[in-house]
Specification:
The protein is an alpha+beta fold. It folds into three domains: 185 residues, FAD/NAD(P)-binding domain (3-Layer(bba) Sandwich); 131 residues, D-Amino Acid Oxidase, Chain A, domain 2 (2-Layer Sandwich); 108 residues, 3-Layer(aba) Sandwich (Glutaredoxin), CATH 3.40.30.120. Strands 5-4-13-14-15-12-16-19 form an eight-stranded mixed beta sheet, with helices on both faces. The radius of gyration is 24 Å and the shape is globular. The two termini are 27 Å apart. The chain has 13 helices and 26 strands. Bound molecules: flavin-adenine dinucleotide (FAD) and 2-acetamido-2-deoxy-beta-D-glucopyranose (NAG) (3 copies). One 2-acetamido-2-deoxy-beta-D-glucopyranose binds next to α11 and β23. Flavin-adenine dinucleotide binds next to α1, β8, β16 and α6. This is FAD-binding domain-containing protein.
Length: 537
């Protein structure tokens, strides 16, 4: 039965991924209800590293990166006896084996003299998760999200018309919420995933760590390094800074420590005890790597840790991957709920996002930080370049034309050259006299055809008139001017008459190397397929 008010999307979990989902959905005008079991926030700051791609997504949502990492920033980890004792060596995330820096062959390849490629307008950012979440929540509320705490989901039902989430509220009363679709952003121990009996696979549980979160002025001894492996005969631990005076020390043993033992161990890790020290909280920490066997069951979608629990790593595959999930899903839900696209579009979520999580799972164990945990469930594989993993993981799905399994699963943007299934390359352009990154033009929730040739104008106008999905035209050299000697044809590997079709999330859906004999017919066919439009040819 058609109803006049659209049913909301229900999001379970108001942590990093649930709040990001709500913000993405509300920014597309989709009514959203978030149900969260807890009354307050987690006491632990948890993740801190948010990657360039994540900051790009937040930029498109109107969140400014107030504290970008320096341009050539590499997250170094120092291996030390103690903070103020002997420093042994440093390692970077890319290292496949640990060895002292001095033993490394000096890199003298010609690339070192050419300037580093800029793949993004945004840099990574160090924001403690407990500072980021309130920002996301405030914006989501401003854009109309309905966030309800002390609402614990206990069951999910779905039928042809929608989903029903049953919760118990603060008074223990049962309440039912009806929605069109449901996003399970309820974390590693996802109630939704368990109710739906979706299994997970992967390396599994590796180690249980105990941790202590404390405040102390250690910066005076860190030489700008934010992560340390502490190596003493009777203390193997990991020390990480939240860059706001808070630190986490994680023990790789199962010893139970009381408050005074915790203080002594922190002093031992620092190598002195003449500094003020405030213990904030302690916790248990599980190192786990598991990916759900499917990210979709009917009208229910898994996102974030509910879909893939990946151990914290310097590539930022844990928390960041979940933010990218909901960015991929939100515009699709918006298109389907507004009637522009048919529900089949939603099947591309699992097809596009699950392989991303699986590859990230495997790449974690190829690197030195985790290869001690490598086992038969996680075949080693080749290490893929960090920039390729961050900016160049390819999507394959029914919603993309010209991308298939024969392609490598990740490459750097300048090696992809506009390959469908990859995110559109970053460069600066002039639009209405203003210098803007391509991200600000094409990653804004609308479909755009980009070309240097006006032979596509008529085709775009004709689609705009007949299809349920609106299409914009970016005329390179006219409405959009290139800068810095950038070359559109080279960046997209098309000829002067060629074109690239950009999705609402900035991914390239299709590309024509040159204009076909009947661009109107061609573009109609292409749009019908990749946008799953409900009307048109
Ligand atoms: C101590 C700690 C340190 C971490 N450090 C890092 C790090 O350094 N780097 C990194 O990348 N990641 C780190 N992580 C992981 C990171 O925090 C997660 O990847 C991220 O929080 C995932 O977000 P999420 O929203 O998917 O899930 P979660 O943050 O787990 O949130 C799930 C939410 O769902 C709610 N919920 C669960 N069940 C229900 C239910 N039945 N009904 C209603 N609500 C429910 C929960 O209360 C919670 O708010 C850390 C995690 C922890 C615990
Ligand atoms: C590790 O990095 C720090 C900070 O950049 C530096 O001071 C130190 O010399 C490095 N140590 C080694 C062994 O490279
Ligand atoms: C995730 O959940 C599994 C099983 O529910 C558990 O074994 C593991 O320790 C959990 N991991 C984390 C990081 O909480
Ligand atoms: C397509 O239609 C939208 C509104 O539906 C409009 O904003 C846009 O300018 C049109 N684009 C073209 C190329 O006609």
């Amino acid at each position: 039965m058609p109803s006049t008010t659209p049913q909301p999307v229900i999001v379970i979990g108001a942590s990093l991924v649930g709040l990001s989902a709500a913000l993405c959905l509300c920014s597309h005008g989709v009514p959203t209800i978030v149900l969260e079991k807890h009354s307050g926030k987690s006491q632990h700051p948890r993740a801190i590293g948010f990657t360039s791609r994540t900051m790009e997504i937040y930029r498109t949502l109107g969140i400014e990166n107030k504290d970008p990492a320096p341009e050539d920033f590499k997250l170094e980890r120092a291996h030390v006896q103690s903070l103020t004792g002997k420093w042994n060596d440093n390692s970077s995330w890319s290292d496949t084996e640990r060895r002292p820096k001095a033993e490394k062959p000096r890199e003298q390849s010609p690339q070192t003299s050419t300037p580093k490629k800029q793949y993004s307008v945004e840099r990574a950012s160090a924001i403690p998760q407990d500072k980021l979440e309130p920002m996301l929540e405030a914006l989501a509320l401003e854009r109309g999200a309905d966030i309800r705490r002390q609402h614990r989901l206990i069951s999910v039902d779905q039928d042809q018309g929608g989903v029903i989430a049953t919760v118990t509220d603060a008074d223990g009363k049962e309440q039912k919420f009806r929605g069109s679709y449901l996003i399970a952003a309820d974390g590693n121990r996802s109630t939704v995933r368990e109710l739906l009996q979706i299994p997970r696979n992967g390396r599994g549980h590796m180690q249980t760590l105990s941790s202590v979160l404390f405040r102390a002025p250690l910066e005076q001894w860190t030489k700008g390094v934010v992560q340390f492996d502490i190596e003493q005969p009777d203390l193997k631990a990991f020390l990480a800074s939240y860059s706001d005076g808070r630190w986490a020390l994680m023990f790789k043993d199962a010893v139970d420590r009381d408050e005074s033992a915790l203080r002594d161990t922190i002093y031992q890790a620092v190598g002195r005890s003449d500094f003020p020290l405030e213990i904030i909280t302690t916790g248990r920490w599980e190192l786990t790597a598991l990916v759900a066997d499917t990210f979709q069951s009917g009208r229910v979608f898994l996102a974030g840790d509910a879909a893939h629990t990946l151990p914290p790593n310097r590539g930022g595959y844990g928390a960041n991957t979940g933010i990218h999930d909901v960015h991929n899903l939100a515009w699709k839900l918006a298109a389907v709920l507004s009637g522009k696209s048919s529900p089949e579009l939603l099947n591309t979520y699992d097809a596009e996002r699950r392989p991303i999580a699986l590859l990230r799972h495997d790449q974690i164990f190829v690197r030195a930080d985790y290869n001690v945990h490598l086992d038969t469930a996680t075949p080693a594989g080749e290490k893929i370049d960090d920039d390729a993993m961050e900016f160049g993981q390819i999507y394959l799905s029914e919603g993309l034309i010209g991308a298939d399994k024969s392609l490598p699963r990740a490459k750097k943007p300048d090696e992809w050259n506009g390959q469908p299934g990859t995110h559109m390359p970053h460069f600066w352009v002039l639009k209405d006299g203003e210098r803007v990154p391509t991200l600000d033009l094409f990653d804004q929730g609308a479909w755009t055809l980009v070309s240097e040739s006006d032979q596509w104008c008529e085709a775009v106008s004709s689609i705009n008139e007949t299809s349920s999905v609106p299409l914009n035209f970016a005329h390179v050299g006219e409405s959009v001017q290139l800068m810095h000697g950038d070359d559109f044809q080279k960046s997209f590997a098309v000829s002067q008459s060629g074109a690239a079709l950009i999705r609402p999330d900035g991914y390239i859906a299709w590309r024509a190397k040159e204009v076909p004999s009947n661009p109107v017919e061609m573009l109609k066919k292409v749009m019908a397929k990749v946008s799953f439009s409900t009307s048109g040819p």
